[in-house]
């Protein structure tokens, strides 16, 4: 893998989390002072991918009902138990995190217009996902 001026792309197989290390090495050769040899500098960064950056990985079997959709001010989730809710931009950034009780609405008026991915986790740890269009 070659990296040019600060850009690095990390990808994982669909449906998995990539857990491992990235090692960046730089060698400096002292041409005018061969007795110094070559200096090797290395930095190792542990990596865990915990969120997704696109919508291709959404599991259709664990869908979430969001209404209205498209939405402008508030959304409601079709749920019958408390949910931990996160909303992600299409770039994978978490833009909102909240708790939702049955019958409650979530205020989304502060989000810019665009497409989002909503994930909700129930008390048993099952995760549900859906797309949200914010007007």
Protein architecture, described:
The protein is mostly beta strands and 135 residues long. The chain is 0% helix and 45% strand. The protein contains no helices and 9 strands. It has strands at 19-29, 38-48, 66-67, 74-77, 83-89, 94-100, 105-107, 114-121, 127-134. It has a 4-stranded antiparallel sheet, with no helix packed on it.
Which terms summarize this structure?
45% strand, disordered N terminus, 135 residues, 0% helix, 3-stranded antiparallel β-sheet, mainly beta, single chain, 4-stranded antiparallel β-sheet
Radius of gyration: 22 Å
H/E element string?
A: EEEEEEEEE
What is the overall number of helices?
A: 0
Mean pLDDT: 74
Q: How many β-strand stretches?
A: 9
Provide the β-strand percentage band.
Answer: over 45%
Approximately how much helix is present in the residues?
under 10%
Q: What is the structural class?
A: mainly beta
Strand order of the largest sheet: 6-5-8-9
Biggest sheet details:
4 strands, antiparallel
What gap, in angstroms, lies between the N and C termini?
40 Å
